[in-house]
Structures are given as C-alpha cells and as structure tokens.
Amino acid sequence: MIPAAFEYTRASSLQDALGILASDEGAKVIAGGQSLLPLMKLRLAQPARLVDIGRLAELRGVRRLDDGRLSVGALTTYAELADSPAVRYGVVADALPGIGDVQVRNRGTVGGAVAHADPASDLPAALLALDAEVVVQSAAGSRTVPVDGFFQGAFTTALARDEILAAVILPAPRADAGSAYASLEQRASGYPIAGVAAVVVLGAGGLIEWAGVGVTGVSDHPYRAREVEAALVGTTGSPEAVAAAAALVVGDREVNADIHAGREYRAAMAVVHARRAIGAALARVR
Amino acid sequence: MAELHVALEVNGEHREVDVEPRTLLVTMLREDLELTGTHVGCDTSQCGACTVHVDGRAVKSCTVLAAQADGTSVTTIEGLGQVGSLHPIQQAFWDKHGLQCGFCTPGMIMAAADLVARNPDPSEAEIRHAIAGNICRCTGYHNIVAAVREAAAVMRGAAASA
Ligand SMILES: Cc1cc2nc3c(=O)[nH]c(=O)nc-3n(C[C@H](O)[C@H](O)[C@H](O)COP(=O)(O)OP(=O)(O)OC[C@H]3O[C@@H](n4cnc5c(N)ncnc54)[C@H](O)[C@@H]3O)c2cc1C
Ligand code: FES
Ligand code: FES
Questions:
Q1: How far is the CA of A262 from the centre of ligand 3 (A)?
Q2: Which of A148, A152, A157, B84 is 20 to 30 Å from B116 at the Cα level?
Q3: Which residues contact B5 (CB under 8 A, 6 or more apart)?
Q4: What residue spans define the domains of chain B?
Q5: In angstroms, rounded to a whole number, what is the distance separating the alpha carbons of residues A96 and A94?
Q6: C-alpha of residue A116 to centroid of ligand 1, in Å
Q7: Tell me, what's the pLDDT at A215?
Q8: So what's the pLDDT on residue A140?
Q9: Minimal Cα distance from B5: which residue of A?
C-alpha cells in the first residue's frame, strides 16, 4: 500500500517547522510515523505536505529540570524513554514494555503518542495519572497546559493545527509516592482494551493524601477518573477501600464497544484493572 | 511531485537514490536497490517481515519513508552474512530448524540481531518479547527461540575468546 502523493519537507529547526505549519494549511507533522504512515497507507489521512520533525535534536531526550521535574522531549522514542530516568515512575516502567513491539518502540515517539490521541493508547493514561503537563509551541510562542483536558475526543486534542508538541513535563519523583499501570491487552495488536494507571501519595498515618488515576481504551479519549481519586483520598488504601474506589472508574461515561470487547465486558475490565493498578501502586510505596 | 534525493549507507555501502516522497523504505530497498531479502508480509505494520536496522535499531521498513532514512545507516539481511559465511544467527536458524517456508526469517533474524546486540544472554521470555512484532505462520516459534538462544551462546563464546 502506497500513501497518496504529498510534498515532503525536512524541518531544519523547530522554528522552521512552525513557520511551515503557519503558512501551509495542508501541512502535517511527521515524527516516528508509526501512527501516521499506517493511516496514510490506508488513505485515511492524505496530507498535502509532510513536515518531518524527526531530526530536530532540540525536541529529543529527557532532561531533569532544576526543581526535579523531568522534561521529556516530544521526539523521545519509547525505547529512549525506557533507558531514561522516567522509568523511576513505576507507571511508566509498567506501560512501556506492552506498547506495540520492539520495532514500534524504536520509532514511536512520546510526542506522537500524545498528539495522536488514540482512544486506546497506553502512555496517555500514565501521563494523566502523573498529572503531567505538555509544552506546546507555535510560531507565536509557547504555552504549558495540563495533560488533563488535553485529550478532547478520539484523535482530538487541544493542539491547534499550527502547533507542535515540544515536551511532556513529569512531576519530580517522590519517595512517598507509588505508581503502577495495569491493562488488558488486545492479544494481536497489544493495544489496551482497558488500561488504568494509578499514582498514590501516602501522607501522615499511612493515609492516602493524593491519588491520580488515568484510564484508556474505555471511552473516546483517555481520561482522569476524578471520582476514583476522591474516593481513595483519606483512606488507608485497604482492599475494601480500593475496590470501592475502583468501582467508580467508568461512571456514566459512554463505553467503547468493538469485536474484541463489548461495553459491559470492557467496563468490567476497567474496574478490575483499576483495582490492580491501585493495589500495585500502594504496594510500591508501603 | 518533485523527486527527493536520498543518500544513505546500506550494508556499509554509500547509496544514492531519487525517490518520490511517498516511497517507503522497504520499496526503495527492494525495488531501487534490488535488495529483495527484506520481505513484505502484511504491509500494515503488523508482521515484522520487513524488519531492517536503521542506525542500529530494528524498525519495520514498511512503516518508514525512504526520505526518513536519508543520512542514516541501514542494515538488511543481506548485510548480516553471506552464503558461505553466515552470521551466527543465520547459522543457528539453519542448525536449529528455525524456519520452514522462510518468509518471516529475514525479519525474524533482524529482530533477533537487535536483541542480542543489546542483551547478549537473553532468556526465553526475553526472546519471545523481542520477537513479539514478528509473525511466523509455520514454525510455532519454538525452534526460532531455540535458534536465538543458540546464536547468543555462540556469539558470547566468540566474544569471550576474542
Ligand atoms: C504495530 C503497532 C502497534 C502499536 N501498539 C500500540 C500499543 O500497544 N499501545 C499504544 O499506546 N500505542 C501503540 N501503537 C501506536 C504507537 O504508540 C504510536 O504510533 C506512536 O507512539 C506515535 O508516535 P510517532 O512518533 O510514530 O507519531 P507519528 O505517526 O509520526 O504521528 C502521529 C500523529 O501525531 C502528530 N504528531 C507527532 N508528533 C507531533 C508533535 N511533536 N507535535 C504535534 N503533532 C505531532 C502527527 O502529525 C500525527 O497526526 C502501535 C503502533 C503500531 C504501528
Ligand atoms: S510488511 Fe512491514 S510489518 Fe508486515
Ligand atoms: S517460516 Fe514460514 S512464516 Fe515463518
């Protein structure tokens, strides 16, 4: 399968790429190409111009900021992320090996995963649970927004057409926090049917002081399950408390259904994996 | 569409090709450079038959543009070993019966080579994880895993005695 014809420009700098996006309505960014090229081969996407940002060193790599937060450049591949301090977050370390396969992890990028906003992508759930932020760049300047709210629908984000996702910012790791990711994978593709990422912070007396829960595969976009978080805070994280909180993971959201999992089954699996992820996160910090 | 000039290293040789922007790396390798050892199984990023190394990392060449490989170093199955001087992984696939029809084999071997380069002593589970992106319709994987283990052992031995 051959994509429809397009013009190709390799950006020489981030500013160059942003300039092309600003001046050419038909231009689309390509990073690793692991989502975009399959869509173009199926002709579900037919951009008139590809702007290749794949070589921009300024968008690559994981840096520790002065305040301990981690800045993950958009072009960091999954394989590079797995070799970085980001795997100190259990939730990232758990999610990475299950994403696609070696070849996909060697080319697929963090920025591509977030910008593409596949309703069933793993990393966004982890980023939601960590309460991460994304740095978005346009010709006009840069803005930093929470990941929560960034995903707006299937393949739809808060990115404007002429913006580029430059980096994802992870909070500083802390000793009183534990995190984990648990998912039911579709056997052939590895995409999550239901995936839940959990972060818990323990406070005085071993009570849960803060919780972040990110959910993917379940509805039209990855979301933060605030109901579950609220139900966990202030509890000891006993099995009963975890089960009661996990039961709220779907709420009244419209649940996806396909040949791999109907609504009822997917919702049930979301609850099971919420319980597992929260339990594993607690076990890591206790 | 204006043609793009792509200059890259393929199996250690400098090559230059003019391609349409939409040309996939696998198409350029097979049709322009006549390196037909790299196979196309699914053409939908699923099967791994088209696996080659770009700058030392295994990728699915049906899911990379030739233009994206400009300036890189690409290794295909032809660059790994030759008839008469097979690479230890090729030899082990032969010795351990790691192939039947052979269609998946070039990609399987390139995926295995990526693994062994990073992990000289992979466990069975690690091998199975590393070839999760490569589909074989014939062997049931058992002998492929055995072949990769054998090759890794041979390569460790060679490294130890070097
Ligand atoms: C066989 C296979 C299996 C997979 N399995 C999984 C899985 O199990 N779980 C999972 O989560 N994912 C899976 N994926 C998807 C994979 O994670 C994504 O394809 C990859 O991370 C996307 O990154 P990329 O750099 O390749 O993006 P590209 O394909 O280059 O781009 C994707 C989209 O994002 C846009 N974009 C990319 N980078 C930026 C940026 N910096 N700023 C703005 N827009 C940008 C592009 O314009 C395009 O619209 C799989 C993919 C394949 C091919
Ligand atoms: S032909 Fe490339 S993955 Fe199947
Ligand atoms: S040997 Fe036939 S597909 Fe693997």
A1: 33
A2: B84
A3: B16, B17, B18
A4: 4-80, 88-161
A5: 6
A6: 6
A7: 98
A8: 92
A9: A8
Domain boundaries, chain A: 7-52, 60-170, 177-285
Residue partners of A84: CB distance under 8 A and separation at least 6: A62, A70, A72, A76
Hey, which of A21, A35, A127 would you mutate to test ligand 1's pocket, going by the most ligand atoms within 8 Å of its Cβ?
A35
User: Which CATH architecture describes the domain B4-80?
Assistant: Roll (3.10)
Q: How confident is the model at residue B162 (pLDDT cuts 50, 70, 90)?
A: low
- In this predicted structure, what is the pLDDT of residue B2? 77
Which residues does chain A have with pLDDT short of 50? none
Residue B22 and residue A4: Cβ atoms within 8 Å? yes
Question: Domain A60-170: which topology?
Answer: 3.30.465
Which CATH code fits B88-161? Answer: 1.10.150.120
pLDDT at B54: 98
Share of residues in chain A with pLDDT > 90 (%): 98
B134: which DSSP letter? -
Nearest C-alpha to atom 20 of ligand 1 is from which residue? A108
Outline where chain A has alpha helix (H): 14-23, 36-41, 78-82, 90-95, 102-107, 110-116, 122-129, 226-232, 239-246, 263-285
CATH classification number, A7-52, choose in 3.30.470.20, 3.30.43.10, 3.10.450.700, 3.10.560.10: 3.30.43.10
CATH of A177-285, one of 3.90.76.10, 3.30.1020.10, 3.30.390.50, 3.40.50.10310: 3.30.390.50
User: What would the pLDDT profile of A121-134 be if each residue is shown by its tens digit?
Assistant: 999 999 999 999 99
